[in-house]
From TrEMBL:
Keywords: Acyltransferase, Lipid biosynthesis, Lipid metabolism, Membrane, Phospholipid biosynthesis, Phospholipid metabolism, Transferase, Transmembrane, Transmembrane helix. Belongs to the GPC1 family. GO terms for molecular function: acyltransferase activity. One of its GO terms (biological process) is phosphatidylcholine biosynthetic process. The keyword Transmembrane helix applies. The chain crosses the membrane at residues 40-61, 73-99, 111-130, 142-162, 197-219, 247-269, 275-296. One of its GO terms (cellular component) is membrane. It is found in: Membrane. It holds the Pfam family DUF2838. It comes from Triparma retinervis. Its main location: membrane. The lineage of its organism: Eukaryota, Sar, Stramenopiles, Ochrophyta, Bolidophyceae. This is Glycerophosphocholine acyltransferase 1. It is a multi-pass membrane protein.
């Protein structure tokens, strides 16, 4: 007997391949605008990205809420984005003269270096480790690339700004020493690797307390701990029922992995070519993975796979 498939099931499979035009348009135009700004006047990349962040966060929040994934907002990448873009907004107001510096020039400069190491280290490397994909038709996936790659791109524009402006200020009013006091005497102070560690610990300590007292016991919602739980159990040979030990092991891996990546990021601060190569590599990886996703999802492979499954199911029902 020949297997059959209901027509509504066939339409359902084909509808999965729909490509929303507006999302693609916004995603492509955003990338083109960033490329233009980076080539024409790099410092404006941070202004554009700061304006873009609240919109993308709102969209991702809605997507995470539907998928029961809100606990991802507790993770390092999202917290650093929250704090970092808030500091960037304050710095924008500061360098244009609307508000006085909220910290001393020395502290602002140290904070800027700390953000540089964290954003070019763990956040940027997450594109490779988490296999982030640049998929212009999926705003949540594209936003995942944004929160991991865009801070590194902005740090690149700000770190090497003096190469484009010949040491002059790009801000129209710049009353207070530029972004993170980069045009004050504080810029010549030694950079301390410990500043990045302190910034990381400011997140790691409260997160650890939350994870060990509540986070490991949460079910029915996605989180990075749950995503890694199976690998943690296998790696450390832990009993599946001992959630507290699994949480400790997860935190240990997180701390060792991230602080190790800080070492790489600290070298990027001193070498323009190395930093530029890192930024390009991350974009290539995200784009390549996005291409693989398109080939599978929209190139027909997923549709063929799903239709075959429906044919098999239809044959069994007959």
């Amino acid at each position: 007997m020949v297997a059959t498939i209901p027509i509504d099931k066939a339409f359902e499979v084909l509808n999965e391949r729909q490509l929303p035009g507006p999302v693609f348009t916004m995603g492509l135009l955003s990338l083109m605008l960033k490329a233009y700004l980076l080539g024409w006047f790099p410092p404006l990349v941070c202004v554009y990205s700061s304006c873009q962040w609240p919109i993308l966060f709102y969209i991702v929040f809605k997507g995470f809420k539907e998928r029961k994934s809100l606990f991802y907002f507790f993770e390092l990448c999202w917290v650093i984005n929250f704090v970092g873009w808030s500091c960037m907004f304050i710095e924008l107001l500061t360098v244009t003269g609307f508000v006085p510096p909220f910290l001393s020039n020395s502290t602002r400069n140290r904070l800027g270096y700390g953000f540089f190491v964290v954003t070019n280290g763990p956040l940027a490397a997450s594109i490779i480790m988490n296999s982030n994909t640049l998929v212009l038709h999926d705003i949540v996936k594209t936003s995942g690339v944004f929160i991991h790659w865009n801070p590194a791109l902005v740090s690149f524009a700000l770190r090497w700004r003096l190469m484009w402006t010949q040491g002059g200020s790009w801000a129209p009013f710049n009353h207070h020493g530029g972004f993170f006091a980069s045009e004050s005497d504080a810029q010549h102070e030694p950079k301390h690797f410990g500043d990045a560690i302190l910034l990381y610990l400011a997140w790691f300590i409260p997160y650890s307390i939350w994870l060990l007292t509540k986070g490991v016991y949460i079910t029915g919602h996605r989180s990075s701990f749950l995503d890694m739980r199976g690998k943690i159990i296998s790696l450390f040979k832990l009993p599946p029922s001992d959630l507290r030990k699994q949480g400790v092991a997860y935190l240990f891996v997180h701390f060792v992995a991230n602080t190790s990546i800080f070492v790489l990021a600290s070298f990027l601060y001193d070498y323009f070519v190395l930093h530029a190569a890192w930024i390009v590599l991350l974009l290539v990886v995200a784009t390549y993975l996005g291409g693989q996703y398109y080939e599978f999802t929209y190139g027909g492979k997923r549709a063929i796979k799903r239709l075959r499954q429906e044919f098999v199911r239809g044959g069994k029902e007959d």
